[in-house]
Amino acid sequence: IWTALKEGHASKNPEEWSDAFAKLTWRLWSPAAIPDLKQRALSKKLTPTQRELAVESIAFINDPAAADALFDIAAKTDASVKVAASNWLLRNAAGEWSQMNIKKRLAETGIYDPSKITVNAITVPKDKPSAANNKERITRVLALKGDAAKGKQSIMRCIMCHNVEGQGPNYGPPLKGWGQTQSREAIATSIIMPSADIAHGFKGSRIILKDGKEVHGLLQPGDPYIVSSTGGMVQMIPKSKVKSTKPLGRSLMLSAGQLGLTDQEIADIIAHMKQW
Asked: Quick one: average pLDDT of 117-133?
């Protein structure tokens, strides 16, 4: 069915597929689609979201060729897509692909070998200003007129965690289009007091290791734990190394003060986000 649909409705070049056909391919789970999906996953012409959908599409196909494709993708591609391919290999190793020797291949390829894992401590420092001081700052910022052109430059400071114009990781929630649906006060509050309202699905965890190290980030439970931290760094942490996991209780996002943003720069960013 997928082959017939491709012949009648899709470009022969998988990099030129419509998003609708890409989603249809995701739904049909066809082994015949694996080579095309692999090409999309490795393509630098597509967005990270399109490439990661191709990886996910492969991961739902219960076929040895799908596992081979994900191993190739994990070996050949860049950060976010490599992580996506590795994550799906880890998930499927104990599931539908359990008969495919995935865990052994993960160790042999160096993607995940528990005996060789060294965990880096990554923590998010607490913001020091009081709530009263932050509210005073919001009032000051809202009294300023922002320059959207300058804001477009200043927002690039956020690429440590957000993808902005194709730069930066997909660690924080998407920013493009969000500001158009928010008030200036809501945007100012999110920049100055990020813990005031944490986006759904982005509540951080505090992972405490048996050796005393601590890692803050977005936690995907399992064995290993997969933790995404500030800067988009992703670590696989063997469960045997973990002492406990707790909610972080505050945002993983650095505040305007921690990023060194001035009141005017915040106002400029707000102006840019209102039209971006």
From this structure: 92
